[in-house]
Amino acid sequence: MSTYSQLYIQVVFAVKNRQALIKEDWEERLYQYITGIVQSKGQKMLAINGVSNHIHIFINIKPSCSIADLVREIKKSSNKFINENKFTPFKFQWQEGYGVFSYSHSHIDRVAKYVMNQKEHHRKKTFKEEYMEMLQKMNVDYDNKYLFDFIENS
Q: Where in the chain does DSSP place strands (E)?
């Protein structure tokens, strides 16, 4: 018997120290690179976008794929890609950890639009407000000391 699945996840992670290092003039290249990583691992990219200090990735993932391994590869490889291309004069690094949230098929369009509308969304809400809201809406137990290093007003 074959394995059939319908798994949709949104992954969120931030630049180390929440620095605003992702610039609009090269972010599309970064998103294309990350999309290539996701596809090379046999997964389907549904949406990717972000702002200067964090990104959101919405993926249709197969049950055979380890989320932790996929995110580790995305962060490791994209970190190297950014630094080798000297997109920023500063050493680029992703912050430890990430958020991952699952969705049903009926939410695909809404979540994809949400991801693609990040710049507009963050004109009204900080990353901290957004992330805390996501944790609360998804009823995720968390400890403040293990959350991203949030800088106020960011």
A: 8-14, 44-51, 54-60, 99-103
